[in-house]
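Good day; I would like, with your permission, to put a structural problem before you. The record follows directly beneath this note:
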Amino acid sequence: MKKNAYHYLFGQDTLYQVDEPEPIVRAPVQPEPPVAQPEIIVEQAVAELKTVVDLEPKPVQPEIIQSVQLVEPEMPLVASIEPESAPVPIIESPVPLPAAPKPKVLLLFDEELTPGELIFLENILKAIHLSLSDIDILNLAGSGLVDFHAVLENKTLHHFISFGVPFKTIHLNIQMDRYQPIRIFGITFLLADPLSAIEADSKLKRKLWEVLKKVFLD
């Protein structure tokens, strides 16, 4: 600053001149010396690395099995021959034959039959494949003489069996022996002992059975 300017500004003041300070010069920062790294021998490191690699277990590679494809044998081509359709035979169902008519049988009695005698009569009829519902019964007990012709009016008859009653009792002039059947005008006549006597005698039972087999079953 010029002297006149100092005098003007500071008038009466005493002015002292101070020496200007010397500029501070900073010393340059010296870089720190690098830390000495240990010297690595390349060949030794490679050898160690190789040793480590050799010691590590190698991954097991899965065994690859090649798939075998089965080739099915070719079937020979055979031309299918369809048989000619034969006409279906029409089978007519057989017409059932009518059941053989059961013989018309008339039994003649002159006594009241007990329950036991009725059971014995049913067994006789079963032996010749008949039942009480298949026959007619003419019982003279308590009724007196009967005209046979009036009984057979408008009826068909095949067998006429009398148990102990002579045929002349009903105005039939037939002379015959017991257990000796006779066929007259398509009707078989048979004279046997009374049913009560047959039931009590095994020999009479046998005689009656033999003649019934001949008349009804043979």
